[in-house]
From TrEMBL:
Every PPIase FKBP-type domain range: 38-124
UniProt-recorded name of the protein: Peptidyl-prolyl cis-trans isomerase
Keywords, in A-Z order: Isomerase, Rotamase
A Gene Ontology molecular function term of the record: peptidyl-prolyl cis-trans isomerase activity
Upper taxonomic lineage: Bacteria, Bacillati, Actinomycetota, Actinomycetes, Micrococcales
Superkingdom classification of source: Bacteria
Species of origin: Lacisediminihabitans profunda
Amino acid sequence: MTESNKTKPVIEFYEGEAPVELVISDIEIGTGAEAKPGDTVDVHYLGVDLETGEEFDSSWNRGQSVDFPLASLIAGWQVGIPGMKVGGRRQLVVPPHLAYGEPGGGHRLSGRTLIFIIDLLGVR
């Protein structure tokens, strides 16, 4: 685990128009096992709304990481996490169609472009 993975990340203001496709940016490259589609991942994450900058969810606030089967997550995570290595930190900018759908989709984040910073702690 590297020093940046030990503290809650800060998401910088996103410059420009909201992307229409998934944007994957490695902040730090891990050196451990690589996540593959279908894995269960242990992550710490922070999510904010691109437009407002408002934080809507954070495992950091709960004080513990979370295990997720990739197959049960939003499409942006299913595509954006594989290839990441344990110990890495990655930012995903996820447009609505890869998150919670278009406006009126029934989820409070429907129609929103979301930014996540994900620390990959483990895979199985």
